[in-house]
């Protein structure tokens, strides 16, 4: 390369490239290094602005491409788009105060991580070594991964074992995909529910801007207390309003309503629930009746509640909507 390939701008130490030259054949007379000549030597002219900007772009690009993947089973495979080791980014700090069995819910992690080998249900040696970049700039080697049954409630597959790491991580997306768990983030708590049954599996507390799962998070008493206090509109339904919720929830029995958090009745009688089980019973036909009457509705034999499926009296269907007040409706099909 000769001096005409780069020219100096009027403002700042910026060089503008004019042509493409094989840098491998160049050697600087000033610093005695290969790859450039004296006219573009940074030690002589200073580092140009465009070179600093280019370096920033490369660092961002490398960080964005750092990733890793886990093959089926326990084999780990490095995925590296930049020729560097696979990496992992974490967005938390100051976790020294956490207990050994505490887990951090992290939406920015790329895999589950555990520092306690005793927490693993199964732990296997990986076929290849995975390098993990930590926030402090250090790199850790991962050679083992396995299955963690978190407090017997949540199954964490392909969890990396990092003994030197200070905390345990739960990867949100992977938990949703493999364990069928739904996360609901509130300002003070994070609710974990079974996606199919909507059952609350655990409630994580927020501490120092982190959502922490520990043994208490899975305690049924703690979960019920949290639901009662944060959804207080349920606890206000007592006494006479119990019948209203009984109707809205599909006429369940008293035992079923007793499981609704905060919904408690001081009156233990089953007066409003007596008719409902009877209304769900019916049969296809009636035996021949020997009773008779001269006036309409003088005598009605009732051994069924609700809709009579089989038409009676020349295609007339009888419907009996019975609750606290008995009523009889007749309609033609």
TrEMBL record:
Residues 210-281 form the GAG-pre-integrase domain. It comes from Sesamum angolense. PANTHER family: OS08G0421700 PROTEIN, PBF68 PROTEIN. This is GAG-pre-integrase domain-containing protein. InterPro entries: GAG-pre-integrase_dom, PolX-like_BBD. Residues 103-174 form the Retrovirus-related Pol polyprotein from transposon TNT 1-94-like beta-barrel domain.
